[in-house]
Design a protein that fits this description.
InterPro entries: BBE, FAD-bd_PCMH, FAD-bd_PCMH-like_sf, FAD-bd_PCMH_sub2, FAD-linked_Oxidoreductases_BP, Oxid_FAD_bind_N. About 30% of the residues lie in helices and about 20% in strands. With about 650 residues, the protein is of the alpha+beta class. The chain has a domain of about 240 residues: Vanillyl-alcohol Oxidase, Chain A, domain 3. The strands form 6 sheets. Strands 17-14-16-15-19-20-18 form a 7-stranded antiparallel β-sheet. The N terminus is likely disordered. The chain binds flavin-adenine dinucleotide and 2-acetamido-2-deoxy-beta-D-glucopyranose (NAG) (6 copies). The site of one 2-acetamido-2-deoxy-beta-D-glucopyranose has 3 residues, from loops. One 2-acetamido-2-deoxy-beta-D-glucopyranose binds next to loops.
Length: about 650
C-alpha cells in the first residue's frame, strides 16, 4: 500500500467511527500519526451505526486500496462470485506465514477502520515469561493468584477457560525462560463495541479466507472460542441492558429485557432484581447469557418451570456470515430465529443483542447438603449408593413438579476412601418451604430406614436473586488437563425397573472408576406456547443431565494421555450412551462420535440446511457445531481435537 492510500485509510478510519478519544497509530514505516474527531468527518450510517452499501460506496470513492477486503458478500447478487470463493477439498483457511496472509499494513487498515479495536494476541500468561517483552513479575503473581476466577479470562481478549484446547501454551508459571507461543490462540481479536466493527471483521475474514472465531467470555468446554491463525471477534464488551415493561410478539405479551451479547449471568440477574422481575440464565455468574449459553440451549435453575435459556428469546439481532445486520424473530428471518435458539453459537452469525422474557418475582424453597461415605463416616459405600438410587427412582416425579436438583458426586480419593455428594442446591421455583418439605419427606423416610446419615439445610426466599446469591457455589474455572462429556437420560428409562437399574449401575460404575459426576434432575420441556426451536430435542424429555469428566497430571506420557482420553469418550461414554444418545453441546465431549444426533437430536437436518443457506462457504466454524464435519483442524490425534492447527476442508 502506498503512503497516499495509507493516508486515505487513516482519513477513513476517523470517518467510520466518531473516535471517542485521540488515538496514536504507529505505521510500519515508523511514522506516527494521530487521528481524532476533529481531523476526520463521521461517515458511518448515522442512524444505525452499521456498515451499509452507502458507506462502502463512500469508501470506494476515497479510492481506498483493497476496499474489496471490507465489502459485503455478493453471493446473493452474483452467484459466480460465491462459487469462486468456495474452498475446495484439501484447501485450508489462510494461515500465518502463508503467502496470502494479510500484511501488517492490511491489518493496520482493519485496525483503523474499526476505530482502533484490533488487538494483536499476547497470550494472557505472557507476563510470566522472562523471555517475553511483556514480562512482569507482579502481574504474573496476580495472574497465578486469580487464575481460577472466570473474570481473569473473560476480561482478556483471547484467554479461554479450558486451556487444554489452546494447547496449554504460555500457561502462567513461576518464572522460567521457556518460550511463550500462540498455540491455539487466534492471531488477532477485534474488541467489538458496535455492529459496524463486527460487520467489518466478518467481511474481512470472509474476503481473505481467514479462519474466524467468536469469543465472548471463553467458558466453552470444547475449544469453540479459540483457534490458531484466526481473527476473533470478542463480544464481551457489548454490555447494554434495557428493561421493557411490555413487549408483544405473536406468542408472548409481558415484560422483557434486551441484553447485549456481552452480558453475563450475574449482570442479568442483578438487572432483573433491580427491575423486580426474574430472568433465566445459568448457574455461574460469569457465563455469557447471549453468547454461547442461549444459542446453545442453556439450562437454568428455573428450567424445570420455564424451559431452556433459548426458550426465553423473543428477538435476536445478528450479523450474518455475508456481513449483513438482521433481526430474527417470530415474524422476521424465521429460519434463523428457529436455528439460533439452541442450534449453537459460532455457526449462523454473531449475536449482537437479544430480547428475552422477564417473569414476575417468585418464591423459591430448597436445600443443600454435603454427604460423605467411607471408613471415617457412618455411611458405607453400599448404603450411599442405595440412597442415591432411591433419589434417582423419583426423578420423573420430582421433574414433573419443576424441580432443579444440582449435585456433584466425587470419589474422595483412592478406591475404598468413599464418596462425597454435595447438593448445591436442590430447589423448586414457585414452591413454599412447607410444600418442598412435604415433597422430599417420602425420600427421607426411605433414607432413614436405610440408616443413611444426612443433614439437609433448608432455605426459602421470596425472590430468585437472594436464593441464587446465597446457595449456589462460587465459580471456579481454567483447570488444566480436563475433559468433559455428558448425557441426557429420558423419562422413558424410568418406566421399567430393569432399564432404570442398569442405567443407574452404569453411571455408578463410571464414578467408581474415577469420574466426577455433576448431575441435574430437571426437565426443561418448552413451556406451552413457546415457538418451536432448533434446541436439542433430547433435552425435552430428559429428567436427568449428567456431566462426567476426568483430569490428568501434567507431564504424563503420550500413551497415558491417549488412554485417559479414550477412556472418557469410549470406556465410560460407550457404556452410558446405551441409555441415551443425547448430550449437551455446551457441556459435552468434543470427540462425541455422533455429535449430530447427540447435540442436536431430530433438529440436525433442518439446522444443517439453514447453515448451508446462511453460510455456504463456512465463514463460521467450530468443533461439533452444525456443519462442522466438512472441516478439520490439522495435526490432531484421533482421540482429541485441539485448536492448535490449521483448519482445512475435508469434504463437500
Ligand atoms: C463454570 C461454568 C458454568 C457453566 N454453567 C452453565 C449453566 O448453568 N447452564 C448452561 O447451560 N451452561 C453452563 N455452562 C456452559 C456454558 O453455557 C457454555 O460454556 C457457553 O458456551 C458459554 O458461552 P459464552 O458466550 O460465555 O462462552 P464463549 O466460550 O465465549 O463462547 C461459547 C461459544 O459461543 C460462541 N459465541 C460466543 N458469543 C457469541 C455471539 N455473540 N454470537 C455467536 N456466537 C457466539 C463462541 O464462538 C463459542 O462457540 C457453564 C460453563 C462453565 C465453564
Ligand atoms: C486532534 O488532532 C489535531 C491534529 O493532530 C490536533 O491539533 C487537535 O488538538 C486534536 N484535538 C483533540 C480534541 O484532541
Ligand atoms: C458519504 O459521504 C458524503 C460526503 O462526505 C456524506 O455527506 C455522506 O453522509 C456519506 N454517506 C455515508 C452513508 O456515509
Ligand atoms: C446486493 O444485495 C443486497 C441485499 O441482499 C442489496 O441490499 C444490495 O443493494 C445489493 N448490492 C448490489 C451492488 O446490487
Ligand atoms: C517452565 O515452563 C514450562 C512451560 O510452562 C513448564 O512446562 C515447566 O514446568 C516450567 N519449569 C519450571 C521450573 O517452572
Ligand atoms: C456417626 O454417628 C454418631 C452417632 O449419631 C455421631 O456421634 C458421629 O458424629 C457420627 N460420625 C460422623 C463422622 O458423622
Ligand atoms: C419394580 O419396582 C417396584 C418398586 O420397587 C416394585 O413394586 C415392582 O414390583 C417392580 N417391578 C418389577 C417388574 O420388578
Amino acid at each position: 500500500m502506498t503512503a497516499i492510500s495509507f493516508q486515505r485509510a487513516l482519513l477513513f478510519a476517523g470517518a467510520v467511527l466518531p473516535l471517542a478519544f485521540a488515538q496514536t497509530i504507529v505505521v510500519d514505516d515508523g511514522k506516527v500519526v494521530e487521528a481524532n474527531e476533529s481531523t476526520v468527518a463521521p461517515a458511518v450510517e448515522p442512524a444505525t451505526g452499521q456498515l451499509t452499501d452507502a458507506v462502502i460506496a463512500n469508501l470506494t470513492a476515497l479510492q481506498l486500496t483493497d476496499i474489496e477486503l471490507f465489502t459485503f458478500d455478493t453471493a446473493d447478487n452474483d452467484t459466480s462470485a460465491s462459487v469462486k470463493r468456495t474452498t475446495s477439498v484439501g484447501q485450508c483457511k489462510t494461515f500465518p506465514g502463508d503467502k496470502k496472509w494479510p500484511s501488517r499494513l492490511t491489518w493496520t487498515v482493519l485496525d483503523l477502520l474499526t476505530g482502533g479495536a484490533l488487538i494483536e494476541t499476547v497470550p494472557i500468561g505472557a507476563v510470566c515469561y522472562p523471555s517475553n517483552g511483556v514480562y512482569d513479575a507482579a502481574k504474573c503473581a496476580d495472574l497465578i493468584a486469580n487464575w481460577q476466577k472466570s473474570i481473569t479470562h473473560s476480561s482478556d481478549p483471547t484467554s479461554v477457560m479450558s486451556p487444554l484446547y489452546q494447547g496449554e501454551t504460555c500457561m502462567p508459571q513461576d518464572g522460567n525462560s521457556s518460550t511463550c507461543t500462540l498455540g491455539g490462540f487466534p492471531s488477532y481479536a477485534v474488541k467489538a463495541t458496535n455492529v459496524f466493527q463486527i460487520q467489518l471483521a466478518i467481511n474481512f475474514a470472509r474476503n481473505l479466507n481467514l479462519r474466524l472465531v467468536v469469543k465472548n467470555t471463553g467458558h466453552d468446554f470444547l475449544g469453540k472460542s479459540c483457534g490458531a491463525g484466526a481473527l476473533s471477534i470478542w463480544t464481551h464488551n457489548l454490555k447494554d441492558i434495557q428493561f421493557i415493561s411490555s413487549y408483544k410478539t405473536p406468542s408472548y405479551k409481558g415484560a422483557a429485557l434486551k441484553i447485549g451479547a456481552g452480558v453475563q449471568v450475574g449482570e442479568l440477574y442483578a438487572a432483573a432484581n433491580k427491575y423486580g422481575v426474574t430472568a433465566v440464565g445459568g448457574e455461574c455468574e460469569g457465563v455469557g447469557v447471549a453468547g454461547g449459553y442461549t444459542t446453545g440451549g442453556g439450562h437454568s435453575p428455573m428450567s424445570g418451570k420455564l424451559g431452556l435459556g433459548s426458550d426465553q428469546v423473543l428477538s435476536l439481532d445478528v450479523v450474518l456470515p455475508n456481513g449483513r445486520f438482521v433481526t430474527a424473530s417470530e415474524t422476521q428471518n424465521t429460519d434463523l430465529f428457529w436455528a439460533m435458539r439452541g442450534g449453537g453459537g459460532s455457526t449462523f452469525g454473531v449475536v449482537v443483542s437479544m430480547t428475552v422474557k422477564a417473569y414476575p418475582k417468585m418464591n423459591f424453597a430448597g436445600l443443600t447438603w454435603t454427604i460423605m461415605s467411607g471408613p471415617d463416616t457412618n455411611n458405607t459405600d453400599a448404603v450411599f449408593w442405595q440412597a442415591m438410587y432411591a433419589y434417582w427412582r423419583k426423578f420423573p416425579e420430582f421433574a414433573a413438579q419443576g424441580n432443579y436438583g444440582y449435585s456433584m458426586i466425587f470419589p474422595r480419593g483412592a478406591a475404598g476412601s468413599g464418596f462425597m455428594w454435595t447438593m448445591n442446591p436442590w430447589q423448586v421455583p414457585g414452591m413454599t418451604l412447607a410444600q418442598f418439605q412435604a415433597m422430599v419427606q417420602p425420600l427421607f423416610d426411605e433414607w432413614n430406614a436405610l440408616g443413611f446419615q444426612f443433614e439437609p439445610v433448608y432455605f426459602e426466599h421470596d425472590n430468585f436473586y437472594d436464593m441464587w446469591t446465597q446457595h449456589f457455589p462460587a465459580e471456579s474455572v481454567a483447570n488444566s488437563n480436563l475433559r468433559t462429556a455428558s448425557r441426557l437420560y429420558p423419562r422413558s428409562n424410568w418406566a421399567d425397573n430393569a432399564t432404570r437399574e442398569a442405567m443407574f449401575d452404569a453411571v455408578r460404575s463410571v464414578v467408581e472408576d474415577g469420574s466426577a459426576l455433576i448431575q441435574y434432575n430437571m426437565n426443561p420441556a418448552a413451556p406451552a406456547g413457546t415457538p418451536a426451536s432448533g434446541a436439542n430435542s433430547h433435552w425435552r424429555d430428559a429428567v436427568w443431565f449428567g456431566i462426567m469428566g476426568a483430569a490428568w497430571a501434567d507431564g504424563i506420557s503420550q500413551e497415558e494421555l491417549k488412554a485417559v482420553n479414550v477412556k472418557i469418550t469410549h470406556t465410560w461414554m460407550d457404556k452410558l450412551r446405551q441409555y441415551g444418545p443425547g448430550g449437551y453441546l455446551n457441556e459435552g465431549d468434543v470427540m462425541e462420535p455422533d455429535f449430530a444426533d447427540a447435540f442436536y437430536g431430530t433438529n440436525y437436518n433442518r439446522l444443517l440446511k439453514i447453515k448451508r443457506q446462511v453460510d455456504p462457504t463456512d465463514v463460521f466454524w467450530a468443533p461439533t457445531a452444525v456443519g462442522s464435519e466438512r472441516w478439520q483442524v490439522e495435526g490432531q490425534e484421533d482421540w482429541l481435537t485441539l485448536q492448535t492447527g490449521r483448519l482445512c476442508k475435508v469434504s463437500e
